[in-house]
Write a structure and sequence with these properties.
alpha/beta; 8 helices; 35% helix; 23% strand
Length: 256
């Protein structure tokens, strides 16, 4: 169940702050990076923390700006600003090597963090990882009218598969995303990578996982495809696969 106690806060520049919850333990620690519009109280985030507690490992989960209990407006955020949040959390709230678990948008951000802090990232686990979604899954799918609208109005509203409220995407999310594209070349990442993806995912095609694995420069890249799973990847059997991926990855690494 979501934690109803008040979170802790990391103060950022210009008065911003990130809400976070941290449990102490051994290294490698585990840091969870949530999806677009999600937060640190989601099913997968709580599952990762429960697993870390059982293994006696440190765990961090937090909300990006504009998400959950953190400060800021959701529509002000973009890939660069959320990557900066992840780097601040990693630098200020964790110690030692970290396994990053990135869900959807978090799977894009974990690649950015691994490239920026290779000495701190011990492993990556992606769950329906969605690098380049702003270009490949939004802009590429827009018709001419939608492209004109988002450029003219600065924002576009699209149906939300999980709510009656539409999802709003600002124009700067598209333009900033183009500065962060990751699947246009090789990725200089040598940490072990395990990608979990549902083949019934209607938001992020499962082929994205194989593209990431192919782009990784390291040889230790594993992809697990689940034929019946969708984007959320939160059913009990799917969470068991997540735990198994965490077990295998942490067993590869020295514990201190």
């Amino acid at each position: 169940m979501p934690d109803i106690s008040p979170p802790d806060y990391l103060q950022l520049g210009a008065g911003g702050q990130l809400a976070y919850r941290r449990t102490q333990g051994l290294a490698p620690g585990v840091t969870f990076l949530c999806g677009h519009g999600s937060d640190m109280e989601g099913t997968k985030a709580l599952e990762v923390e429960a697993w870390a507690r059982q293994r006696g490992l440190a765990c961090l989960r937090f909300d990006y700006r504009g998400h959950g209990l953190s400060s800021g407006d959701f529509l002000d955020g973009n890939i660069s600003s959320w990557t900066a949040d992840c780097l601040a959390a990693l630098d200020e709230l964790t110690e030692g090597p970290q396994i990053l678990v990135g869900s959807s948008l978090g799977g894009w951000l974990m690649l950015n963090v691994a490239l920026a802090r290779p000495d701190r990232v011990a492993g990556l686990i992606g769950i329906a990882a969605a690098p380049d979604f702003t270009e490949d899954l939004l802009w590429a799918e827009f018709d001419d009218d939608q492209r004109r609208k988002i450029e003219a109005d600065g924002v576009i509203s699209l149906p939300n598969p999980y709510s009656d409220e539409p999802v709003k995407y600002p124009w700067h999310l598209i333009t900033d995303g183009r500065q962060n594209l990751r699947l246009r070349g090789d990725l200089d990442i040598n940490a072990p990578v395990h990608l979990l993806h549902g083949m019934q995912d209607e938001e992020v095609p499962w082929q994205t996982a194989t593209h990431i694995a192919a782009a990784i420069s390291g040889s230790d890249a594993e992809v697990t495809l689940v034929k019946a799973a969708g984007h959320r990847f939160s059913e009990p059997d799917q969470l068991a696969l997540l735990r198994g991926a965490l077990d295998r990855m942490v067993d590869l690494l020295p514990t201190t």
